[in-house]
Amino acid sequence: MSRNPELDRLKAKQQSLFEQKQATFQRFKDLQERTNVAHDVMQSAWNERTCARKHMNREFEARQSAYSHRDSVWEEYGRIRDYNNSRIESLKYEADAEHRAMQDCFEQASNAYQYGDKSEAPYYSQQGHEHKDRRDELNAEISELAREVKQAKANAEASAPKISSYAFDSAKSAFKSAKARHESAQAEFKRLKSQRDSAKAEFNCLQVQFKQAQAAFNRKLEEVKFERSTRKRQAVEKVNMALIKSNAHYLGTIFGQDAKVVPKRDGSGKIDVYFGGLNPAGDGFGHGHATIDANGNVTYLRDAWVADKHDYLIDENADKKYGTGTETHRI
To answer: DSSP assignment of 83-152, as one string?
Structure first.
């Protein structure tokens, strides 16, 4: 029986969509696996980034604590320095005053001894020595205050921590590297996820198109089966032979055409009917051909003047390409 071009086209379209769908699904599965791997890599990079950030923060806090301790040490030195220097300035002013007073007293004692009442000289001399003693006390206090400032500075230099930024800078560099690796892994994950989602959407679209093509093919297949069933039934209904016996064959008509009926010699009881050809008996060039079994069933039927001998209407041995079963019809 002849092939149906539209059915072949629908079948080819269905097959093509199925192959596209399967290829897209395989691509989706591959992308899904790659996306999962990229997610694990991204998560691992995030864990490294988190640990590196915590380490950097610890080093930063340690450095800040060292800065704070150092600043407190030097602040204490500055407090002592500023207080002592202020006190020293005041004492220096007082010591200078005592020194000038001492000089005045000694000068008055000398003048009294040389030019005046010598009895007053001892008084002025005693006053001078008192001013001198007070001056010396003040200078001693100034020296002590200066020593305290110097000692406070030495203590600050000894106790203030030596701060290095190496540990923090190394931790910060490690964090930047971990951050860059995580961001790179995150970008790769997002890229693969986008491709995976795109493949999933494409698969869903192809799945819908495949279902539509499958439904269209099935509808057309039912139409073709119905049409062929109708043609077979109509062909059988037209078989109306009037046979005239001859020595080797019978002469008769079929479909209103002259026909030559030849019994098979294989003992099967089948007969071959040739009709519609150029010969008067119905055979010859362009003839049609029918085969009828011993029970009167038409098992093969091909119209006259067909371009292809495979373009038969009935054939019990036909290739069931579209799932149609063999049918025989009794005349």
So the answer is: HHHHHHHHHHHHHHHHHHHHHHHHHHHHHHHHHS-GGGHHHHHHHHHHHHHHHHHHHHHHHHHHHHHHHH
